[in-house]
Design goal:
The complex is a heterodimer. Chain A folds into three domains: about 220 residues, no CATH class; about 35 residues, no CATH class; about 220 residues, Domain of unknown function DUF4159 (Rossmann fold, 3-Layer(aba) Sandwich). Chain A contains 14 helices and twelve strands. By secondary structure, chain B is an all-alpha fold. Chain B has a domain of about 70 residues. Classes of the chains: A alpha/beta, B mainly alpha. Chains A and B meet through strand 9, strand 10, strand 11 and helix 14 of A and helix 6, helix 8, helix 28, helix 29 and strand 1 of B. Strand 10 of chain A pairs antiparallel with strand 1 of chain B.
Chain lengths: ~500, ~550
Amino acid sequence: MSRGVSPSSVHHDQTAKRMTNSLAPFPRRLAWITAAGIVPWLLALAAWQLPDQTPEWVSVWLLAGIFSATLPLGIAWLRWGRQAGRNSLLAVCAGLYPIWWQLALFWSDVLELYEIRSGLATAGLIGLFVIGLSIVTWYLERKSRRIELAQIDVALRSGPILTPHAASAEIQNTGPRIWNPLDLRAWYYGRGGRKLKQSTAATIGYTALFWILAMLSSQVGGCQKIYEMPAGGGKQQTVAQTVRIQKVIRKKFVINPLSAIKFSVPPIDEVKLQLQEVTAHQYAIGYGEGTGAGFAGGTQRGKVRLIRLEYDGGDWNLNFGIGGDVNMLMEYGLLTQQRVGEKTESLRISQLASFPAEKSPPVVFLTGQGSLSVSNTDVKVLREYLRDKHGMLFVSAGSAHFHNQFLALMTRVLPDVRPVSIPLDDSIHRVPFALPAVPYVVPHGGKEALGWSADGRWLVYYHPGDISDAWADGHAGIPQEIYTACYQLGANVINYGHFEYAKWLQSKGASK
Amino acid sequence: MNSAHVCSGFHRTVRLRMMTALLVGCLVSVVTAARGSELDELPLDSWKLLREVERYQLQIAEKYWVEQNWKTAAAEYEKFLELYEKSTGAAYAQLKWSLAQVKLRKQNTAIKDGFQTVVDYWPDSPQAVAAAYYIGRTQKEIGNTKKAKTALKEVVTKYPKHLATVYALNDLVDLATIEMDVPARIEALKKLTFDCQRVPDSVGVCQQASQQLAAHAFREGAFDDGVKALATTYQPAQLPLAVFDHVKTPLSELTGDAKTKDKGSRLADQAIAWMKQAAPADLTTPEAKTLARQTLLLAADLTAVARRDDQVASAYEAVVVANKTDDDALGRLAAWYKGKMNYDKARETYRRYANPFEGLGQVAYSFREQQKWPQAVEVYLQLLGQDAEHKVRWKQELALAHRGAQKWPEAIALYEELVRDDLANAGRWRWEVGCTHRDAGQYKEAIGHYRQCENFPENYNQMAWCHRQLKQPAEAIILYKQVAADSKPYAAWALLQVAYTREESGEQEPAIQAFQFVCKKYPKDPNAATAHAHLQQKYKISVTLGGATDD
């Protein structure tokens, strides 16, 4: 077969032709529309991921419009894919997957379906991994097959007539050292089981790359995460209910003791006092010299946000969102007159690492009823957040089981700090609202609030009895004075966290 | 909820409560006894100096203090201060007012307005030293470790011979332990062990320090230092046992870890050699003989603890030989065999007991441990035939073996015999009859026997549980309600069981109401927390009622 066409090259050409045919009727118009939509989609994605750095005119509905536009566009691509052939359809599906996954996440976030969102995030990531792995396997197989066929072609042309298998074997045993990992003859695959070794290496490599990219993306995205307190100032004092006493001045009569008219002189004890309660705040609640209730080191667009920590194993989202802790956030705004976020938020513990030291959340909330599973990496992140970033953890026990789990967690996070019962006359129980006792719904973890303290401040405030139930709609059916006290306690803890953070920022600024 | 689980949960809760109460009681009494004697009491001489009116006012305050009515006590001490500011008892009243604030969990007020005032206004009074110490201790209690350390160290420096220094050093040990500051901990422990004067109020703290120091020294492999520390606390005759008690845990830990095995081995050599040389040479007195036997036995025990398996048997045998026979040594050797899962050898050893009945009893018990019920029964029957003097004991053990083998009629028959034979404990055996019927699933019979018992409310709880097994919720609820009405400590628990019983019988709405009732009526009780969590988890009901404050 001097100039003849080898069977492998025929096969190769046929494959190439089939590929070309399948992609032939490419929809140029649809491609242009898609290309034009990529930029606004990416901008919308950035705006959604980084709400702090997004102008206020970018509403959630604008984002919803941009994201939802991917739906008809995707359907159009799918219709084309069905006509173009199996490979094209698969390619379209793979391309659409991350976009529609993000769309589902966005809508579950907007509709506050947090459980679904959490499930979608995890399942979606797994799906992305599987799709990527499939593509890698397909590409690897295709490439290595091509190389193999090409080498067989060369061997058949230059040497005696051999069977393709024998040719392949001969090629593998001769020639210089091959480094290309797509080539099965690469020296590091050894002599036996080369295909298996290649597949294993590819899977491990892909998995490692995927993991690194996932970590990097969370870090890169996270680096831009910031928390800004509301600008302003105020005093750390107990809100005083001042009582102004006004004397009611009666008319004075000049009495002539010799008068024929008899007067009844009222005794001195009957002088009436009119009491008028003045309940308005006499000063702004916050810390610093600025005007309006807020904190030194805050910004004009800054708000007090209630951020909850997500964790594995249990129900991190107990009383989360509307009808739950949003009530507390709103009440905090009313009680302190500080600017607050529109809704409560949640973060994975690992995401705390993404905040810069001076723009971290001053306080994060944690609650639940079930198990509390936290990895060693997350424990480290939490410790760094509490110690180095001057953060604070506000925890409410939702069950006796959670209580035990949390105490065990704290021995890992702060092994050199022992929890103590927080005094009733501590500023956290006195400012801005003086609480004569710690209110609770039921005593899951005792009756006294526990605290972990270091360097003269509370790193952790642990409420023993389901405070988030008292904040939720219906207030767990507890008496009004108890749930009012629960709101005040919540306000005290959130305010304390922000006050300590502002103080820290100020001291850092002064030392610089 | 499973009823068996409920029942066992009740037992566990009761046991836990009892143990916790006992432990807390012991701790509180020890701490109060140790720290409440000199520092926060007015010396008799000072009482003499008070005028009658002052004494009267102070006695009123003391009365409320003893009653633990802290709020009123604080008010009365404050009244004393207002009325008799110039009195010699003013510093004391101020100190006690501050301590009352601590009890009311207003520690910051206690420090700022109380203890510090004593130090500032009455610096030369004996209460000033106490106040200076209490500042440190209270700072420690509220987690201000830095301030606590500063205050406590100041006490140690300023008043080295005062009792307050002993307590301050003890708190410094505690702080160093929390912060894992080993050098600081050891320094404080050494001061407490060797330097502090041991008076009745400080002896407990100093002894405890010497024990901690010894344990640390043993763990570090410094055997002689450990013995030196213990020698400050124990008499020479008590020292071998004290050394054994404090060396066994570090020795076991060190020899159990491959990394520290050599260190452990060296410690074992030193400890065994010391134990042997601690035996008196002159064995003429009975005390000396006892001590010699004890040291030999302890040396054998140390051999076992140090995992020198090849030497253990010979070490115990040496004790047996030295004393001709020694059931104690044989028992320890047999226990060691059991630890190695060599039960046959253990039984062989038990059979060598000088007291053959005791030995056989141990043999039978070892069969029970292995769940070899027929063999155990056989040995107990043999014992019943031979040892008529301890018939009650062997019958009880035999009944337990039958229960283990699930031979309920035999066990019940034995307990019935015990009811007749051992009239002094008839109630106890009746209870066991009830429990055996319950374990056998004969709930009706069990109820009948429990009804005859007098250990309310436990018998009512068991009867109610049996009714629940018989699907008779109405009867169970009646019994639980009787418990709730007549036994205050178990009221919340009993009402929670009412709710569970209603739930088991399919009455969902009344069950929910019953759970809510527990929360509403006993919002401060841990059972309310269980009811609350159950309502949320099972019924997704957030309105659980409850709500209270910790005052």
